[in-house]
Amino acid sequence: MRNHDTNTTFKSSWKYAEAPESTGHIQVKKQYDLYIDGRFVKPAKGKYFDTFNPANDQKLSRVAEASAEDVAAAVKAARKAFKRLVKIFREENVESTYLELHV
After folding, report:
1. pLDDT recorded at residue 41
2. Do residues 61 and 23 touch, judged by C-beta distance below 8 A?
3. Rounded to an integer, what distance in angstroms lies between the CA atom of residue 14 and that of residue 8?
4. Backbone dihedral region of 38: left (phi > 0), alpha (psi from -120 to 50 degrees) or beta?
5. What local confidence, expressed as pLDDT, does residue 1 receive?
6. Which long-range contacts (CB under 8 A, 24 or more apart) does 35-42 make?
């Protein structure tokens, strides 16, 4: 939820200085898709939502909204990648153990 009140007064002894953040050093795309299985893909249901800069309430970008179908695809890809990583780590572990024993 965004707070549209820019003149918020805190009832405490804390004093806050303005934070003039700059976005000149970054490039924000107009729209971001989902990153699944090593590539960017459109959301299955085609839904996006707007994101806003909390400092000035200006729209930054549109971001893909993942559906249950998208989450299932991401989980499937992650499990596949995990199996490959386990195999690689096991092979590296065997190789490093072999080297340790023969040095």
Report:
1. 98
2. no
3. 13
4. left
5. 44
6. 36/70, 36/73, 36/74, 36/77, 37/73, 37/74, 37/77, 37/80, 37/81, 38/77, 41/73
Over the chain (103 residues), the average pLDDT of each successive run of 10 is 51 64 79 97 98 87 97 96 85 66 59
Q: To which residue do tokens 């839904």 refer?
A: 47
Cα–Cα dist 84/30, whole Å:
34
Joined tokens for residue 65: 């909204």
The confidence score (pLDDT) of residue 77 equals 96
- b/e map of 39-63 (b: 16 or more CB within 10 Å)? eeeebbeeebeeeeeeeeeeebebb
> In angstroms, what CA-CA distances link 36 with 9, 17, 53, 57, 78?
43, 40, 26, 29, 8
